Amino acid sequence: MALSGVGIVFGNIQEEAPQSLTETATALGASICHAELASQAQFLVASNVLKTADGRDPYLTALNLNPALVPVSTTWLTECVKQGGLVPHAPYVLAPLSGIRVSITNFGAKERDGVAKQLRSGGADYTAELYKTMTHLVSNKVGGNKYT
After folding, report:
1. pLDDT, tens digit, for every residue of 91-138?
2. 10 Å Cβ neighbour count for 139?
């Protein structure tokens, strides 16, 4: 089988039903591991680095138990299906801030631009405006229009 001997842990999955991805991975011969058994896996498949809707954090739990896990997007698994086997993971590595929606406050213009650039390079979705859908607010100091 295409992924025989490959262990997979699933993190937060959003764009597809987790059951569908689990079935796909199993059909390819992969072993599915719970986050608490991440030491038996090689890949962490996730949509983003955020907690699940029920408050669990399989992404962080799995990586804490097995720092050697390679976090990849769900697209990696889809590509394994298309190619009929294990594909190189490098193009599908999940960015460390993937899924994070962030705004920043209390920075000077030059600092703000530098922080925004770093956030984007880490995979975060940065915007200057603060919306209710934001997951994080980065502040240089306590206070400000966005902070309160």
Report:
1. 999 999 999 999 998 888 899 999 999 999 999 999 989 899 999 998
2. 14
Helices first, then strands: H and E counts in the chain: 4, 7
What one-letter code names the amino acid at 87?
V
Label residue 143 exposed, middle or buried (CB < 10 Å: 0-12, 13-18, 19+): exposed
For every residue of 23-50, DSSP letters joined together read: HHHHHTTPEEE-GGGGGG-SEEEESBSS
DSSP 8-state symbol, 71: E
Give tens-digit pLDDT for 18-33. Answer: 678 888 899 999 999 9
Residue whose entry in the numeric block shows the structure tokens 């940065």 = 126
